[in-house]
Amino acid sequence: MIQATNSNELFERAKHSIPGGVNSPVRAFRAVGGNPRFMVSAKGAYMFDEDGNRFIEFINSWGPMILGHAAEIVQDAVQAAIPNSLSFGAPTRREIEIAELIVSMVPGIEKVRMVNSGTEATMSAIRVARGYTGRSKIIKFEGCYHGHGDSFLIAAGSGAITLGVPDSPGVTQGVAADTLTAPYNDLEAVKDLLVANKDQVAAIILEPVAGNMGLVLPKQEFLKGLRELCDQENIVLIFDEVMTGFRLAPGGAQQLFNVTPDMTTLGKIIGGGMPVGAYGGKSEIMDFVAPAGPVYQAGTLSGNPIAMAAGMAMLRHLDNHPEVYERLEKTTTKIVNGIKQNMQKLGLNYTINQVGSMFSIFFTEQPVVDFESAKTSDTALFGRYFNAMLQRGVYLAPSQFEALFVSTAITDELVEKFLQANYEALKEAHE
Ligand code: PLP
């Protein structure tokens, strides 16, 4: 039994001054039982908590630590930038360099605006799409999460599903009425919405690979079909690549699936772990953004020099080392195949979805292709599995409805350790 005395004490203390004791809901471990671990440091594939425990990491700050924690190239870039001041609130050369690099890497981006989180990126993107089209409504998909902007907390994924509040109180009926929802992978449902809301839909926004109801892959005809519908109806197609951007390929899911959206939202990896987001797209649309155009969007800390230094180091590395993606996929496939073998030995037959370095085990025997099928998972069983893994020093996302992220720091030896823990934890969870 690993110790959690210090983490438990800290959690009790945190609850007095922080709502629920955490600064982002899923961190609280509500869905899996027990208390969250308070972290002190992380290096490579490991995180270390306040009780001196070491965990092999499969969250990687929910995605951005693609090269593992405290990667030297990123740390060095940040350290070199610090003496020049932490923020200017004025333009810098590096902002142009990172914008040029993003434009060169992501097929759907001709111009890009930096913001400070994925939430800001998606909120801004739909405002621009509304300004550009002069229409009000948007279509999103059940179980997709696009941050906590009011328009997106309708049938939302991630922590919103985990905590049972997909439709958050505090979102006005007026805002909610402008968000239409359809099941993921269901093109016919989108067509029906478009008929019922002719010439009223400004944007269709989706995770081109959904990572916030667990990992759900798009059917190829789904992405292509959405592209065609948006072209026919003059609707802005927005791919939210906050998770998948620079993770599934240098140009994200849009490169992998060869479907180019009109706008793209980004986050996480472009900050290398610093708080950064971005939205970009066709010049014709992005030129609606102030001061080029009339749609207002701003940020005191946007394009922050330290964040840009970290992001630039990360993106340059990924751009110059495309072999990273092959390696990540190979490691992840080894893990997924190993889990399948473990399940076979134990007479289990749960669904695993994988693409590149992202994967989820769903505790259901049904294929998982949308939110309805994701919800057939046994979440109590997931909780037992999660805690059994934690006891064996493996740190997973504390919810059935999240994807796991593999970093380049996961060696073959760590894959073996993971698989041993996985076998024992699956067994224990069924006892
Ligand atoms: N969009 C997607 C696809 C995400 O996964 C997330 C966060 O996980 C967001 C948007 C929101 O990003 P942030 O948490 O940086 O606001």
UniProtKB/TrEMBL annotation:
Enzyme Commission number(s) from the entry: 5.4.3.8
Chain positions with N6-(pyridoxal phosphate)lysine modification: 268
Assembly and oligomerization: Homodimer.
Domain of life from the UniProt record: Bacteria
GO molecular function terms attached to this record: glutamate-1-semialdehyde 2,1-aminomutase activity
A Pfam family this chain is assigned to: Aminotran_3
Main location: cytoplasm
Name recorded for this polypeptide: Glutamate-1-semialdehyde 2,1-aminomutase
This protein's UniProt keywords: Cytoplasm, Isomerase, Porphyrin biosynthesis, Pyridoxal phosphate
Similarity comment text for this entry: Belongs to the class-III pyridoxal-phosphate-dependent aminotransferase family. HemL subfamily.
Organism: Pontibacter silvestris
Compartmental location: Cytoplasm
Cofactor or coenzyme needed: pyridoxal 5'-phosphate
Recorded metabolic or biological pathway in which this protein acts: Porphyrin-containing compound metabolism; protoporphyrin-IX biosynthesis; 5-aminolevulinate from L-glutamyl-tRNA(Glu): step 2/2
Annotated gene: hemL
Enzyme class: isomerase
